[in-house]
Amino acid sequence: MRESVRKLGLIGAGLWAVTEDKINDLVKDLVDKGDISKEEGKKVIQDVLEESKKQKVDLEKKISEKIQDSISKADIFTRKDMHELESRVDILEDEIQKMKNKDKMFFK
């Protein structure tokens, strides 16, 4: 599962990079043809890149939510589970030690 998530992230990053290059090329062609000014081209690139970044953040958030949802549905032992069990074991060990100490005092 971890490898699949990593690959998905790489694909997303790759698509974003290709998109940025393509946007720059398209805008440059429009400026060279005189269809838009350099200032308009810069504004278009900035707007598209900002929107692209927003979509990237949204996609990452959705992927994270789906992963968390899948983990919660699956019967997977998490770090949180491990820490909770360690805490319970510590409490039980303390209780056992207290019982042993009481027994020593009682049987003296």
UniProtKB/TrEMBL annotation:
Coiled-coil segments: 42-102
Sorted UniProt keywords: Coiled coil
Domain of life: Archaea
PANTHER family: SLR0058 PROTEIN
Protein name as it appears in the record: Phasin family protein
